[in-house]
Amino acid sequence: MKYFISAGEASGDLHASFLISALRTKDPEAEFCFLGGDLMEISADRKPLVHYKQMAFMGFVDVLMNLRTVLGNLKTAKQGITDFQPDALILVDYPSFNLKLAEFAHKRGIPVFYYISPKVWAWKEHRVKKMKKVVRKVYSILPFEVDWFKKHDYDVTYVGNPSKNEVDRKLKEMTDRETFLKTFGLGEQPIIALVPGSRISEIKKNLPVMMEALKESGNYQPVIAAAPAVPAELYAAIAPGVALCTDTFALEYHSVVALVTSGTATLEAALIGTPQIVTYRAVGSRLVYNIFKHILKVKYVSLPNLIMDRMIVPELLLHQCTPDNICRELKRLLPGGEGREAQQKQYEELRQIIGETDAAQTTASHIISDLKGN
What is the band of 24 on the pLDDT scale with cuts at 50, 70, 90? Predict the structure, then answer.
């Protein structure tokens, strides 16, 4: 069968690459056309129609400033669907763009599947109506989404969480600390990981606050998780002399604490077992905070807290994300701090809630079964 897949950012590229591999295992005749990145290219053995580096725009202003590119990508994707004539369209998060593709495919009788649902439970709840019209099945990676969608009379299937699957795979292959330090030219001091996001706009806002908080970090060395699409010069301009690490997973694993901008990396750190502080800074922070308090439908923004439905990792958001506040939380989580052990114990409960199911393999089985049944 023929599968058209759309993933618009780095995490989507990673998760979709495993899904492609699972589909190829279960459907040896599978053909792929996709929007995504290098990992999907390796799994599918062909280049993307559009690379996610040309798609990773976040927020109204960012999209507006790059509107011509966004519209061009959408046109390319629609033409790709028309030319490829897939048996299924598989969408990976990235809702503003992907729901337009879903509508386009649905009108042409192409079954649409969503792997990694849009976060409609957080905001833009109205999108559920469109999803019910144009998406045949949603495969959820967050346990609480099943009950949330039931309130909208929408039956979604929890398939496990790919981050847990990937973390467990990587933990088995993890190198020792000495090899890690040598690979990235790091010193012997304990590491505090700085994970300021994968988008340039996020990095410019969050990394300076992190660096200010660690000015007097004592015997700890800060190391930055460098995103693959971001020039090293940007990090050097903000944090001169601070080491870069291109393996975020290994960095979090070998760190005593991580400062993480909200995203998939927060769940990774929790599954690895590394104590963390979630930090997120933005322009006009207090104003933005007050606006989003009325827009957002959730109590938390980080995945560990959302899954557990309680605060297990501190969230320092917008105007609350200050060097002083970060330092206060760091003292609690560094070795010997009173909050360190408590956070790690709750990580164990988080793992049990997520479960052991392989998300990519399970989703691939469901999609193929659905297509063969129809």
Answer: very high
Q: How confident is the model at residue 294 (pLDDT cuts 50, 70, 90)?
A: very low
CA separation for the pair 280, 206 (Å, rounded): 6
φ/ψ of 47, rounded to 5, equals -80, 155
Comparing 62 with 183, the larger pLDDT belongs to: 183
Query: For residue 90, what are the contacts with CB-CB under 8 A and spacing of at least 6?
Result: 3, 4, 5, 6, 16, 19, 113, 114, 115, 367
Q: What's the order of all strands across the beta sheet hosting 315-317?
A: 243-245, 221-225, 191-195, 255-261, 276-280, 315-317
> What is the mean pLDDT of the segment spanning 363-368?
98
The architecture in CATH of the region 2-160+357-373 reads 3-Layer(aba) Sandwich (3.40)
59 Cβ contact list (under 8 Å, min separation 6): 201
Length of the chain: 374
Provide the 3-class DSSP secondary structure of residue 315: strand
Residue found under tokens 């202003």: 61
Give residue 310's pLDDT band: very low, low, confident or very high (50, 70, 90). Answer: very high
- Please state, in angstroms and rounded to a whole number, the distance separating the CA atoms of residues 369 and 371: 6
Instruction: Say what the pTM is.
Output: 0.85
The H or E element that residue 39 is part of is helix 38-44
Give the H or E element holding residue 311: none
For 4, phi then psi, to 5°, come to: -105, 125
Per-residue 3-state assignment (H helix, E strand, C coil) for 164-212: HHHHHHHHHHCCCHHHHHHHCCCCCCCEEEEECCCCHHHHHHHHHHHHH
Phi and psi angles of residue 35, each rounded to the nearest 5 degrees, phi first: -110, 125
In tens, the pLDDT along 222-240 reads 999 998 779 999 999 999 9
- The one-character DSSP state at 299 is S
Q: Where in the chain is the domain with CATH 3.40.50.2000?
A: 2-160+357-373, 165-354
CATH for 165-354? 3.40.50.2000
Listed range (260-269, 304-313, 356-365) with the worst mean pLDDT: 260-269
